[in-house]
Amino acid sequence: MTNAFNNRIGVFDSGVGGLTVLRQIYRQLPQESILYFGDTKRLPYGTKSPQEILQFVREILSWMEKEEVKMVIMACNTSSALALEEVRAEFPFPILGLIHPGAKAAIKQGKRIGVISTVATASSNAYRNAINELEPDAKVWQIGCPEFVPLIEQNKIHDPYTKKVAQEYLEPLLRNRIDTLVYGCTHYPHLEGVLKEILPSYVKLVDPAYAVVRSTAKELEINGLRNREDALATRFCVSGDPEEFAQASKGWLGFTPHVEKIKLQPHFGIVDTPMEIRDNSEQDIYAESLIA
C-alpha cells in the first residue's frame, strides 16, 4: 500500500472512549479525514488477556490496512500498553499510542502522579514505566477501575452509583496526596464532571488524547502526510450494534453519526470467537501499584 496524504487517519477504541481523541483531532487537525472503529462487540478490553488484546489489535489494523489508512492512532490505552510495540513492525503505516504522550504531559504538571485506567493497563505498569523513564524522581500510583467503562458505555455517568465507585477508586490516590491525575483510559474524560466533584482543586487533570493528537500533527508533518484537500466526513464503524453506538455517541459528538457494522476477519489463522465480558473476581477488584 502507498500512503497518500489525502487518505484517512484510522482511530480505534473498544467503544465510545476514543471519541475523546476524535474530538481533539477535530480541534487540532480539522483538515484531516478520519476512519473511526469501535470494537463494541468485545468491550471492555480492560478485562481481557494480553494475548486477546494483541489478537484484536491485529484484526483491526489488518482491516484498516485494506481501507488504505495513512496512519493509525490507538485511541485505547489498553491496546497501547499491551500491543503497540509488537504491531508497529507488522504494518506499513505509522501507529501512535497514548502512553508516552500522556506520560510526557503528566511530568510537566507534577511529581506525585495518579493514573486511573483499566485493570489491564494498570497491571502492565506501562504508565509508571514511561513516567519514570522520563522523570525518575516522579512518584506514580496506578489504580485499575474495571467498572468505569461499562458505566460510561451504558450512559450512567450521572448515576449516583458512578460517583460512589469513583470515590472508592480515587481514595488511595488522595491518601497519597497526588498533585496530578492522568486519564489512563480514553473513556474517562467523559467522567470529568464527576471526578472534579471529588478531587481537590489543586489536582491537575491530564488527558493523553490532547497530547497524542499533538504528536500526530508532528508525525504527519515529518512524513509529508498532511491532508491538502478538504476533509471527508468521518466514517464510523463498529463490530457490535451500530444503533447503540450512534445513540451513545451523539451526546459527545453533537450529532447522531451514521454507523456501519463491520465483521473483522481472523488474523494469522486464529479463530475470531466473540469474547464475553467476564463475570469473575477481576471485575470486582482494582489493581494498585504504590511507590512509597
Automatic annotation (TrEMBL):
Catalytic activity: L-glutamate = D-glutamate
Pathway listed: Cell wall biogenesis; peptidoglycan biosynthesis
Keyword set, alphabetical order: Cell shape, Cell wall biogenesis/degradation, Isomerase, Peptidoglycan synthesis
Highest taxon in the source lineage: Bacteria
Biological process terms in GO annotation: cell wall organization; peptidoglycan biosynthetic process; regulation of cell shape
Enzyme Commission numbers on file: 5.1.1.3
SUPFAM superfamilies assigned: Aspartate/glutamate racemase
Active site per database record: 76 (proton donor/acceptor), 185 (proton donor/acceptor)
Regions annotated as coiled coil: none
Gene Ontology molecular function, alphabetical: glutamate racemase activity
Task of the protein: Provides the (R)-glutamate required for cell wall biosynthesis.
PANTHER family in alphabetical order: GLUTAMATE RACEMASE (PTHR21198)
Protein's UniProt name: Glutamate racemase
Species name: Cyanobacterium stanieri (strain ATCC 29140 / PCC 7202)
Gene: murI
